[in-house]
Every structure is written in C-alpha cells, then in structure tokens.
Amino acid sequence: MEYRKFGNCGVEVSCMGLGCYSMSGAYGTADDAESIATIHRAIERGITLLDTSASYGQGHNHTLIGKAIHDRRDKVFIHSKTGTIRAQEKGSVAEGSGTPERLREICELSLSNLGIETLDVLTMSRVDPTVPIEESVGAMGRLVDAGKTRFIGLSEAAAATVRHGFDARTLTSLQYEYSLWTRDPEDSQLEACRELDMALMAYAPLGYGFLTGTVNKAGAQSDVDTRQKFPRFTEEHFEANRQRVAQLEALGRDKGNTAAQICLAWLLAQGNDVFPIPGCKSRNHLDENIDAMDVVLTAEDLAFLDAVFPRGSAAGDRYPPDGMQRVNR
Fold first, then answer.
1. Rounded-to-integer distance, Cα 220 and Cα 230, Å
2. Do residues 268 and 195 lie in contact, with contact meaning Cβ atoms separated by under 8 Å?
3. What is the model's pTM?
4. 276 sits in which H/E element
5. Cβ–Cβ contacts within 10 Å for residue 210, how many?
6. Catalytic: which of 27, 56, 203, 208?
7. Which of 21-30, 52-61, 137-146 has the lowest mean pLDDT?
8. Between the CA of residue 34 and those of 23, 43, 285, what are the distances in Å?
C-alpha cells in the first residue's frame, strides 16, 4: 500500500480510500456481516481512509463502521460528512444544513453512532446558501478546538467558496465527484486545492458503477437501487455513455485489467493529492479496487483515455436539476 500526505494536516493515509455509502442500501440490499468483513479486509490490506456520512442509512452507516472498528480505531482515518436536511416535500436540501447549531449537533450524533471520541475529518456535505461560508467553517473550527474532530473540510464547493472558507479556518480537504466522465474539478477546484495544500477526495470514481462495464441496462439496476434518478443512467443518455465505456473495457482487456481498475489507476495518476474513494460492499470488489494500484498506464494509455473521455463528454448531467443546484456553490 502506498501512503500519501493528506493535504496540509501532516497525516499520511492510504492513497486509496474505502467509500462506505453502498453498505447502507444505496444500490441494493447490503449484508452487514459482509460489509464489516470488507472493512476488516480493507484494513488488513493497508487501507486507512474511510469515507462515510451521518446521512447514510439514517445513521446505519456510522453504527456499522463503529462495530467494525471498535477494536482497531487506531488503524483508520475517518472522514465523515454531515449530510443535508431531509425536507418532506423537497428531499435533501442544503438550506439550513450549514448552521453552527446543526453542524455541532450532527458532529455529536456522529461520534455517538460511531462510538468514538474524535473524528479525523468533519466535512460539510453541501454549501448552505443561507449561511456565510465563513460562519459554517468557523463553527466547524470550534469543534476542532473542542476536540470533537481533528480536521475539517468541504464537499462540492466552488473554488471561490473554498478560498473564502479557508480564510476563516484551515481546511484540510475538499470532496468532489471526480472520474473519467466527471472531470469538473479540473476546471478550478484542483487549482484551489493545490494553492491551499488541500487533499482532493474523488468520490464516485467509478461513475456510480457505470464505468465498470457492469451496467447493461438503463435506469435502476434493482428494485431498491437509487441510480434511476441520475440522468446518465436514463434511456435518453444510456447508449452514448455505454459506447464510451465499451472503449474503456477494451483498453482493460488489452492490459489484462478490469475497466474499474483502469478508472482508478487513471485517478491515481492525476497527482499525489488526489485520493479516490471507490465504494464497495464486498471483499471481492474491494480486492479488485486495491489491485488497481498495480496498474501502469503509459503515456499512450492516458492519451487514449483523454480522447475517449474529454471534459464534458458524458451524456447527461451527473445529478437531476435539484441536485445540480446544490453543487459547485
């Protein structure tokens, strides 16, 4: 396992993390025993960076991780997001999610559910347009002072917002969707992170599974799958995106790797400050992901991938309209 400095915090973590979202039913039923075994296998193979959120499974994800790490807390670096408020009619909303009171409440709840005393990184999930970013970041900074979290970060924030927040308190990381078909951070977020010596956590590095080549029909992949809401999975855009993935699969076959491994190797090649956090809920997929660190992409391979997946090439937005309104703020 390779370890890299995680932004400006002075701590080294595994160059790849484990995203725990799917362990709480996001893409179909998950098995708690297998999820815990997957976390244990990740630790055994050197993964130290775990990504979670207070909102995943309405607390289930934190409780699950707490069970998995109760006797190995010192082996992991826990990055936890706050989630956003769930409104009955609107669903998930950023408005009101970044108040000092709520951030403190969510931090305390997260610690209780995880069964730990201190988070490693507390990250605000979406920028609250009703609260100045300096106020939200300042509130998280006070949680650092209180010993509730060691470091703080933002998620899906615009570059200017990151800089303003950093003026209020040192930010360690920015989490943003980043993959071959979502190269948005290359517009300005990566530059801001490098200017401020922050880590960029690349979530959904496999395009919510689409880039693995295993998605062969439009819409939801099971009766309890949430991906039917993503425009890139709809009938309208499916075929154009599937054709690009077919070329990705072909490169993988030529190199003796899976499409997923090519995607992760590409992200790892984008810089030592980029940390992909592929999600999985089984040991088999975990091992496949970790083995991507052994993939060597040549200059020709990288040029080929750039040609197949240039910026803005994915058909459809990454979120439905309400979701797109909550990103890059």
1. 9
2. no
3. 0.95
4. strand 274-276
5. 24
6. 56
7. 21-30
8. 9, 14, 12
The residues facing 203 across adjacent strands are 177
Q: Which of 222, 241, 165, 220 is nearest to 198 (CA)?
A: 165
Do the Cβ atoms of 195 and 171 come closer than 8 Å?
Answer: no
DSSP bridge partners of 207: none
* Measured distance CA(166)–CA(56) in Å, rounded: 27
Q: What is the mean pLDDT of residues 209-224?
A: 83
The DSSP symbol for 222 reads S
Reported confidence tier of residue 299, pLDDT bands at 50, 70, 90: very high
Q: Which two tokens stand for residue 82?
A: 């706050």
Confidence of residue 225 (pLDDT cuts 50, 70, 90): confident
- To the question of domain 3-209+270-295 being in CATH 3.40.50.300, the answer is no
Token pair in block for residue 44: 């055994």
Residue in the block written with tokens 């244990």:
40
Where are any strands of DSSP class E within 62-208?
77-81, 85-87, 91-93, 119-124, 149-155, 173-177, 199-203
Consecutive H or E run containing 14: strand 12-14
Q: 122 φ, ψ to 5°?
A: -105, 125
C-alpha distances (whole Å) from 309 to each of 104, 183, 204, 315 are 41, 9, 16, 11
pLDDT at 196 > cutoff 90: yes
Residue with tokens 């807390």: 73
- Is 56 tagged catalytic? yes
Q: What are 103-157's pLDDT values in tens digits?
A: 999 999 999 999 999 999 999 999 999 999 999 999 999 999 999 999 999 999 9
pLDDT above 70: residue 224 = no
Q: Judge whether residue 95 has pLDDT over 70.
A: yes
Strand partners, 52: 80
Q: Give the separation between CA 324 and CA 329, rounded to whole angstroms.
A: 10
